[in-house]
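Q&A log
Question type: sequence-to-structure
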Amino acid sequence: MSQVTQNKVVAAPVPMTPLQEFWHYFKRNKGAVVGLVYVVIMILIAVFANFLAPYNPADQFRDALLAPPAWQDGGSLAHLLGTDDVGRDVLSRLMYGARLSLLVGCLVVVLSLIMGVVLGLVAGYFGGIVDNIIMRIVDIMLALPSLLLALVLVAIFGPSIGNAALALTFVALPHYVR
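Response status: OK
Response body:
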């Protein structure tokens, strides 16, 4: 009376690729998903500002100086976010301004990453006195308030977008050197 039972072999689940695993955990973090959606929307607005913006950002509407946003009394749908003190549409200026903001932000990250990695590699490779000099300079930069340091550098270099990007690169540099 022996009975032979047969166990079916159940295959193990297929392991996830690194990208699948990343997405699996990433989509569980609601804050990260909201942030990703926000960044994607900002990039799309910046790229397609020519088509999305209702007006040219430099156009002046003299009949609508300091017009309030559409949801306030006196506002109109012609200028959803209102106009500034010379009559330029605020929504159009924000859409076109997103281009410059994203460009400067990406430029600062790339430049500080490249320069920081190079300085960190030099400090690590040579060690000794070279490492001490580079790391003490980085310590001094980290000890200073970042915003104050950036403002001082812009005051020294002069006011321009390029100089502001250079100052921000210099301020972000120590984090990549370490």
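Response note: DSSP finds seven helices and no strands in the chain.
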